[in-house]
Design goal:
The complex is a heterodimer of chains A (121) and B (107). Helix content of chain A is 0%, strand content 54%. In chain A, the strands form two sheets. In chain A, strands 2, 4, 5, 6, 9, 10 and 11 form a seven-stranded mixed sheet that branches. Chain A has no helices and eleven strands. Chain A is mainly β. In chain A, 40% of the residues are buried. The model of chain A has no long low-confidence stretch (mean pLDDT 97). Chain B is mainly β and 107 residues long. In chain B, strands 2, 4, 5, 6, 9, 10 and 11 form a seven-stranded mixed sheet that branches. Chain B has a four-stranded antiparallel sheet with strand order 1-3-8-7, with no helix packed on it. The mean pLDDT of chain B is 97. The chains are: A mainly beta (121), B mainly beta (107). Chains A and B meet through β5 and β10 of A and β4, β5, β9 and β10 of B.
C-alpha cells in the first residue's frame, strides 16, 4: 500500500527558510502528480502546491507563489517543499498528498501524517 | 478561483441518525467534488470521489450525490467512530479548493 512520510518541520524565525521532505513508498512515485496541503492547527485545509510527474509543471496557491518551491527527485522517491521568506501565517501542519484521478476530476487518495512548521520569533 | 460553501459548520447527531452535509460551488464543476474525513490528530482520508463514488474500503453507510453546483454527503446510521470533521474539495483552473469543513459530534 502507498505510504507517505513527511519530515523537516520545526521552529523557524520570520523571514527564515525551511525545507520539508516527503518519502514515498508502495507505489510508482514517478507516475503521479504530488501535492503539499497545509492546515493551521484547529482550522481548515489549504492546498499549497503540486508538481507534475517529471517536475516540468508546478502550480501554487497565490499566498506562497514566489516564496515556496515544490521539487521532486524521482530517483529517491521523494517530494520536497522549499519554503523561503517564511511568515507567521505559514505556521501549519504540512501534509504530503498523492494527486489522483479516475477521469476528469482530481482528488488526494493518499496522505502523509503531516509535519508541523511553526514560524515565530 | 472556485469557491466552495460547505454547511453546516458543525452538527450534533445521535448514533443511528442519518446525517447530511451540503457543499455548494461558485460555478458549475460537473461532478468534480470529493469528500474527506479527518479525525482528531490524523491526516484526512478520502471517502467519496467524483461526487458519488465510494473510495476503496469505505463503509457503504457513506454516500454522496449531486452535480453542477450543489452536492450532498450523507452518513446513513451514524456510528460513534464517525466523529470527525468532513471536508468537500474540488479542482479547477490548476487550483484545489476545500470547503470550510463540518465538525460532526455525537449527542
Amino acid at each position: 500500500e502507498a505510504q507517505l512520510v513527511e519530515s523537516g518541520g520545526g521552529l523557524v524565525q520570520p523571514g527564515g527558510s525551511l525545507r520539508l521532505s516527503c518519502a514515498a513508498s508502495g507505489f510508482t512515485f514517478r507516475s503521479y502528480w504530488m501535492s503539499w496541503v497545509r492546515q493551521v492547527p484547529g482550522k481548515g485545509l489549504e492546498w499549497v502546491a503540486d508538481i507534475k510527474q517529471d517536475g516540468s509543471d508546478k502550480y501554487y496557491v497565490d499566498s506562497v507563489r514566489g516564496r515556496f518551491t515544490i521539487l521532486r527527485d524521482n530517483a529517491k522517491n521523494s517530494l520536497y517543499l522549499q519554503m523561503n521568506s517564511l511568515r507567521a501565517e505559514d505556521t501549519a501542519i504540512y501534509y504530503c498528498a498523492r494527486d489522483s484521478s479516475q477521469g476528469s476530476g482530481w482528488f488526494f487518495d493518499y496522505w502523509g501524517q503531516g509535519t508541523l512548521v511553526t514560524v515565530s520569533s | 478561483d472556485i469557491q466552495m460553501t460547505q454547511s453546516p459548520s458543525s452538527l450534533s447527531a445521535s448514533v443511528g441518525d442519518r446525517v447530511t452535509i451540503t457543499c455548494q460551488a461558485s460555478q458549475d464543476i460537473n461532478n468534480h467534488l470529493n469528500w474527506y474525513q479527518q479525525k482528531l490528530g490524523k491526516a484526512p482520508k478520502l471517502l467519496i470521489y467524483d461526487a458519488s463514488n465510494l473510495a476503496t474500503g469505505v463503509p457503504s453507510r457513506f454516500s454522496g450525490s449531486g452535480s453542477g453546483t450543489d452536492f450532498t454527503f450523507t452518513i446513513n446510521s451514524l456510528q460513534p467512530e464517525d466523529i470527525a470533521t468532513y471536508y468537500c474539495q474540488t479542482y479547477g483552473n490548476y487550483v484545489y479548493t476545500f470547503g470550510q469543513g463540518t465538525k460532526l459530534e455525537i449527542k
